[in-house]
Amino acid sequence: MIASLKRVIIGRPLKSTELGEQRLNKTKALAILSSDALSSVAYGPEQILIALVAVSMTAFWYSIPIGIGVLVLLTALILSYRQIIFAYPHGGGAYVVSKQNLGKYPGLVAGVSLLVDYILTVAVSVSAGTDAITSAFPSLHEHTVIIAVIFVLLITLLNLRGVTESASILAYPVYLFVIALFILIGAGLYHIAMGGVAPELHTPMGTHVAGISLFLLLKAFASGSSALTGVEAISNAIPNFKSPEPDNAAKTLSAMGLLLAGLFAGIVFLAYYYGISPKAEVTVVSQIAEETFGRNFMYFFIQGTTALILVLAANTGYSAFPLLAVNLAKDKFIPRMFTARGDRLGYSNGIIILAVLSILLIILFKGQTDQLIPLYAVGVFIPFTLSQTGMMVKWIREKPKGWVAKLTINGVGALISFTVSIIFFLTKFSHVWPVLIFLPVLIFVLHRINKHYEAIGEQLGCATSEPVLPIEGNVIILPVSGITHVVEQSLAYAKSLGAAQIIAVYIPFERDEEAVFERKWENFMPDVRLVTLHSPYRSIVQPLIKFVDTVERKARESNHQVTVIIPQFIPKKGWHNILHNQTSFYLRTRLLHHSSVVLTTVPYHLKK
Asked: What is the pTM of this model?
């Protein structure tokens, strides 16, 4: 029943040969890989105003030069990541660039930051989308967390069905959002041009504002730079593109940059000209739409598409997180299970882990987007800085044609990204201090995982000089609890191995049971030695382990192998297992840690 339900929800399994059909064209890739960056225009401009309102509303005119600064940074990042796409066409983005040019640990910093960033991408995007819904329908505000968790589950399900299928569904809301916002910006500019907006609503450019400081302006710039989160996703997901992958990825990145610049500039300008002030339960985009159209169809259309894009921006995380996890797993920094493809050829383990961690974050922060955005943004700008620095090292070392221009582009990107990172730490330390704890902790964990895999490889490799111990015979220990078909079949299997000695072990709790069983055994299997181990404390596992240890020590002296055969009957129905003791499971668990003992389970399947 579970298998049938899985087929209905996720779809039929796909053959490995169908992988090429799961790659994305530029139109679909732009939708699902740019949704995070494009959606950030719904809260990036708002973050600038939140920082400026600390002085007064007269300071809002500074949002224009700050917005221009953000666009300069965007241009530098787009040009930089285009270079990364062609230099590293197999994907990996900041992680691969940093690892290959700066070293193992800078690469780990970039990789861990991006993993956390993609988890936050899902949490922030879904929380922001839920905010847009509750702005239009305030009565739903108390159900924010539940709504957000439901959205995460739905997006997870779509991604488990495969990249192409999720892209086909999610592309429409993304393009609807872009159209809706360009209509909003166009209508707003038309109203301004026609004199439909009173000039006194905004402070004239250049107005002196008491209390303004460079520190505050830098804080507002850093906050507005949160609109650039997700720019790096395309460089991580190059393998998802149709051939030629780098060319298609670069064109998609450029298209995303142009759309993001246009939408961001338009929203910043309209928010300034309309004199919009940030409010706790109504977003800036919602206020602009209401001022432009009133609460009519267009307002709800814009709010609806904004909510959709904010929720579906989480899909960028679902597209990039599993591929980054694959690169880290191939380098043996995280479990190998992340390299396995699921039934629909997606990296389903990465998708599921991402969903679980995102839901935990949403619940922990109670869906409060403003608390998550600083963490989210600083997690992006650390890899930004490292990747640009790594590319600078690459150009200086290799000196290809035109390397000076490339170095300049990456140098500008690295400098601005580093500046934004420092500003975040200085101005929002109360929000971003967890980064200083979880980044070192996660890096240490990944380092230990890497050491474990290296130790495993060193010990398993046949090139090592460790000799293989000779085996001159086999001593078989067979725990028995009675005289049954299970024991009979296990004994037949043991005899087929040609063992030097077979020892049946019976562990009674009472002395009278011991004598009775010995007489039965003599009649049942007289040619097999029986050892009874009285257990006054009613434990089966402990006496057996001690006996195995004793036999193992003696067997080692004569180069004999000890094999423990565990009889086990298998009920016809799975739920019947809860009606029986799990002694065989406990025995296997304990004996697995005995380095010189071979474990064999002989199943006996019940027919009714």
From this structure: 0.75
